[in-house]
Fold each of these.
Amino acid sequence: MKGRQIFLNAATTVAQTLGNACVLFFLYRFLIRSVGLERLGIWSLVLATTSVITLANQGFSTSIVKFVAKYAARENAEDLATLVQTAVISVALGIGAASAGLYPVAREILYAVLPNARLAEAYAILPLAIVSLWLNILEGVLQAGLAGHQLITVCNYLEFAGGVSYLALALALVPAHGLLGLAYAQTIQGVALLLVTWHLLRRRVPRLPLMPQRWSRAMFRELGGYGFHFQLITSTQALREPVTKALITRFGGLAMTGFYDLAARWVFTFRETIVQGNQVLVPTISHLQEKDPKLISVVYRESYRLIFFLAVPVFASAALLSPLVARIWIGHYEPAFVEFAAMLAAGWLVNVLANPAYVADLGTGALKWVSIGCLVAAALNAALGFGAGARFGGVGVVAATAFSQATGYGIVLATYHLQNRVSFRQLLPRESRPVVVASLAGAAALLPLFCAAYTNPRFSAGAAKGALAILMTTILVLMWRHPMRKQLFRWLYNQAST
């Protein structure tokens, strides 16, 4: 892939992530005021319960990116069209069967964790939640086909358009229909995106028919062979969220589940902003494995240095700004939101630092230790979450979630360095140490002070905000003087001017 195309893919990915984060901010602010936190907790729990459907899909989606790039490079249009149809038909049937089996199970889960007064509303939105998720999964498969053609920029436009349309539909339908209106909005958006994406993919692959109709056993096995380990990876990832939310609902209540969902979305936005730009390297590394494998270590080293430069101050800032975000988003200072944001920021920081290793393993197909790390994270999440929830309530569940996340992805990062003989000294780049010290020490010292200013009249809110402003300015100055900033700006200028 040309450097300019990598730049465009990464730039539009970051822009799309930030744009959809803004859309979600306004959507959740609207939902808190229109349906309330408890009903938002119902919606969050239903989505988490139905999200296990994704277990049957992600291996295929990732395989499509890799193998579409492979067949496109060979310029074999007929095989390419067959590959896409095989993937779409396989996922449509597999997800359809999984959805049918999930429905009664999801009803039982909701019955077990929700108060009786809330069951009717949850049961009403459950079928639409399953249908819309099925549509979104199919649309994701088609987007993977576009990504395999290096059209990640087009995928980003589609994602942002989908987010805006979802917000518009929710604003129109929720006031009259409540949570059912939100389910209608998600389903309508799913149908529209699926049709548009299929149209765009057919323009790129003219041999595709109006409706998928050709299925190849050989290509199904080729896709499945690569996708098996990744299927295991995404299965464990998909299970963590519903398990976490079910445990929080049981030990902390629906309102706490709502606060967790808000905190998770706040922190996850920073994770996506950093990581999604790096994900565009998967087809690049796959290409390098065929053409010049020695360059993969160079790509890993530089991508890790860049992500480390961004991730530590960004996640420290996410935790520090959470009291202000709570005031704006929820309408008042909420200790649970702030505590959850701080714990999740620590867990997701390790996840983000492991992403360059994760991406390199995806591109090369070396997924054994990624699978093991994700299995460890899922097992710890369930076991520790139950034990901590029984003893410490919902806060204990979230702490266990953050710890399991950090442990699992710490395994992924460490084993990549061991397998590829990469020095562990690279995990803490020398030039980034001042930024790390300022970010972590500042967050540890100021966050308690910032929270106290909202709850204890003896503490001055103005002084806390002033200290926060000084710390943020210090971090920004250190980042500005960082050699990676200069290298990044130089690269961006060169790519934008070509």
Note: Residues 116 and 212 are 43 Å apart (CA to CA).
Amino acid sequence: MQIAKNKTIATLIALFLMLTITATLVALPIANAHDPAWTYPTTAYCVAVPSRIGIGQYTTIVVWTDRYPGTAGGGSGQRWNGFKIDITKPDGTKETIGPFKSGSDVACDYRQYTPDQLGTYTIVFSWPGETVVATPGLPSTSAAIGDYYQGSTSEPATLVVQQDPIAEWQEPPLPTGYWTRPINAANRAWSQLASNWLKGGWLVDNWQRWGTAPESAHVLWTQPITPALAGGINDAAWPSIPSDVNDYEAPWSAPIIMNGKIYYNQPAVSDVAKYGYYCRDLYTGEIIWYKNGTDNGLNNPYTTAGGYTLSQSYLGLTQGQLYHYYGVNGQGILAYLIMVSGTTWYFLDASTGNFMLKLINVPSGTAATDQDGSLLLYSYNAATGNLLCWNSSQSIPPLAPLGTNQQQWKMRFGATIDAVNDTTWTVVGPTGDVPATAIRPRSGYTMNVTIPKGLPGSIAVLKDAKRVPKQIFGSTVSGDTVSAWLLSIDEHVAPYSPYPEFSATQNNNLGFGATLLWNKNITVPLPGKNYTWGITGISYDSQVFFVRCPQTRQKWCYSLTTGTLLWGPTIQKTPMGYYATGGGSGLESSQGYVYYGIYLAMDPSNYDGQIYAYNATTGTLLWIYNATSVGRESPYGDNMPLMLGAVCDGKVYVYSSEHSPSKPLWRASYLRCINITDGTELWKLLNYHDGTGGTFGIADGYIVSSSQYDNLIYCIGKGPSAVTVDAPMTAITAGSSVVIRGTVTDQSPGAKGTPAIADADMQAWMEYLYEQQAMPTNAKGVEVTLDTIDPNGNFVHIGTVTSDTSGGFKKTFTPEVPGEYTVIATFAGSKSYGSSYAQTYLSVSEAPPAPAAPEPQAAAPDNTLTIIGTGIAVIIAVAIATILLLRKRP
């Protein structure tokens, strides 16, 4: 799939280059009207890029004419018809591509082609000629209308196909360890690593479909939510009571993570006005900028009018937007922050936090995000059958309603725009040959269709893996009856124009259509019990939805394709399973808890602490997870309650909390990572995350969360590492042993220079470093591979050692060859750290020559007995003399 993406990008670059060249060569028609119509000769061109390839590789055939239609400007103007590419293969057989319509308003197009023979191909492009016509909905005053452009045929282009493939661009390998943004644009495959967390309609049920997610409890950094916010236990006078005064409203809300930056609002502290928002670096935790709510150009916009109240606050960040701008002069990704207050949307510059533009009268509706990043709002009027889709990008006008300006969308700084009835331009022209023309007010709606009236209930927008809206599911529950219906969204059934006022069907079916697939009443599985019922688990990928009964704590699976029962019920959960978000009737979730084809039978607030995982289409029970409590910490039975935080990269992230946490906070609350395939707990970390303040974000392989235990932000994921290695500075002799020693340390911003620890011991080590828990006594370090390059250039493996809790390692090595050695220590990385290595040098000298053997000598006479005898005589003489002296004393 990645190769295909790279192909597309490469051909687009070639096409854009050709478009630029073509636009400078085109001979424009004379603006003055003429009768009779004029006839223009044209020239056709064709190239193969590249013109020499290997068998099995592809080339891009780019074709164009030197003139384009006089009414071709903008997204809905005329395009030349009948483009045709004739290919003659080396064996003389012919192949034709087309006829097709030019995809560009400057009469240019391209096709990818993969040859199947060796040799030389001949490629010829031609088109039959065409008369300029008016574009439906546009003023028919162009002088070029009626003129005829003669057909033309290009000179032959040559393509040589050889046996050996031509060299392709060699992209560096995908990193498996620590990396940071920005990602160099030359490394296209690396895009699969990057991800964002934009909130709003960007994600459904906190399913992060892109990028990777943490595989261990390693903490990259922690920071106070705000520099001055106190955290943790406050004073011995109030034992165990933390500084955070909020029981119902947590100080932290789920962040926006965009392009390696974290955006979040000032903590919601109940005794002061809530104001301001922060931008931090995802990889370091450092504050990049802070806005206090009045210094962003919004002129002190309180969300509550009138005098000072506890609920009064400045506007806060609601969501982020990454918009894929695709205009006549290029494409790219634009980043915005959005604040929503009622029906008013404020767009901010993501790089500074400053105000850019305001949309007023934004309609209500079910939120979704389109593939290009446009923010959508769907609404259905049951009385009229009117189905609408409002588009944020449609609401903001491009540079002008005519010509290429129609394709140049820009954020209008400081503007206030009506989202559904913009009257910024009520008159257009005169421009060139177009006189002043009255136009109607613009509208932000891109879909306005009529479907059957009276369809019941709330709606959910179902999207595919590329975020493209595909279906609309509606439902409601009344007594023992679930009323449901399904609608397919048919995209681009009419030409889309950023200026619908120039369409013949203004604001009616512009770019979208809709087809009702089914509408039925479903009798609940247990009728006559006076139970309450709800709808949950709506999945476009698996084409299922679930009916839930809180009294029995069970769910039944229905086909989204037909509305019929597939399987059920699920296993009856414990009595605590009754308490779950959405226990009553109605639509509980927009898309549900089906991930990778697996249904997680848990609710947003799961007080029984259990997860049952089923195959979503067959009902096969795959695994059960229990968040076992410690001692008496859980007030909800044997398990800690569980809340679903996010799903990413085949992992389920849950945390334990409650709606209104009591003080002191109960303990044994963890952030947990579970393998979605088999239910294995991969890691956990002590963390109390409030259940009402949002969850957390996952982007670029990191989780950004907070903990009410200490009011700190936690960034969890891989960190960088560093290796050192030392050998004796003085030479040793060959055959002598030497100790190679070094260290492996964590270089993360929050724990720089601390020992690197094994993944299996990461929970205890992180809780020791960051959360004041006891230092683990049995923790292990990481494996280090020691190798040398000997004086002869041979690679010699010394061995593998494991560092200790000081970060140190050592290994005895006995070099046999004299000369200079290079000693290399390598840490291959782990789930917690990126890889690192270091090298040092060792000098080994020749061993000194062995001493020469002495000459043999004649044996000396054996005087042992004589010597012994003489010794005894001396001893006796000394003894006699001593006795005589004693006798002479008076």
Note: The chain has three domains: 2-162, 207-304+311-716, 721-845.
